[in-house]
Amino acid sequence: WEKQQSEASQLLGVLGQRLTSESSLSAATGIPVEQVVRLLDDADYRLIRSADDLLKAVVHVLRQAEEGAPYDVSMLYGRSEPENPDPGIKGKAGKKRVRRRLEEHALQAYVRRRLEDMLPSRIPGIQISIYREPEVKYQRRFDLEVAAPTINRQLARIVVEIKWSDNKDIKNSLENQLVRNYLIGHRLSHGIYLVGWCGAWSETNKQRAEIQLLKSYLADQVKSVNASEEGKNLKLETVVLDLRWRDDLPEQPVGAVQ
Q1: Is the dihedral of CA 233, 191, 140, 205 positive or negative?
Q2: Taking Cα atoms as reference points, which of 45, 44, 32, 50 lies closest to residue 147?
Q3: Which residue, among 165, 176, 173, 172, has the nearest Cα to 107 in the 3D structure?
Q4: Of residues 6 and 175, which shows the higher confidence score?
Q5: Cβ-contact 157, 147 below 8 angstroms
Q6: 40, 96, 126, 156 - which has most CB atoms within 10 Å?
Q7: What is the pLDDT of residues 207-241, one digit of tens each?
Q8: Single pTM value for the model
Q9: d(CA 14, CA 9)
Q10: Bridge partner list, 131
Q11: Is it the case that residue 96 has pLDDT exceeding 60?
Q12: Which of 43, 119, 74 is nearest to 256 (CA)?
């Protein structure tokens, strides 16, 4: 009995210290105690105090989603078909088959689904509104918008522009569409430029097959925007998801949902 009483006393002491610590932290930051507890207990939990926090949470989830992307790419590509449909071509060249990526609306739907699957577990109790190309003024359309209330009852908004890597507009759509039309044009400040890597991209009419070069190219674009007068207060992130088709795709993990 004495041993149990001693252990119970120690446990109560630890709980008392934690409650005091949590209450102090809550008072110092203005964050509700229950959210402080969740922050201490759950490394994946994201507290939304501003659009900065929402931007970080969305980017984090997108980059985590890439880990499972090899199991998902079949929904982004069509059936196997001859690389060259000309029946007059003989030999190996005539027999080679390829899978071509689907249109960008399929990529938008995939990204939306992944965000809807993964964000609520990081921000429980908060409504994440994800719209696929909602109507906005001047008939300009966002690819995706993520909106969530902050702890101060403000609305944080993130615009996500989505392109396949072989889209010819990739050379200027970050600045022209995301920055000028969607962010500056609607007085928003936070955006993500997401590219689905399908194996190649065009730089000044030259086909390139290096994903790292594309990442560097987009990072330089962001630096250029932030160095300008109109873009100096914008918060921009670029995400390149490796979604290329591979014939050696890994098998689905046991228990995975197709």
Answers
A1: positive
A2: 50
A3: 165
A4: 175
A5: yes
A6: 156
A7: 677 899 999 999 999 999 999 999 999 999 999 99
A8: 0.76
A9: 9
A10: 145
A11: yes
A12: 74
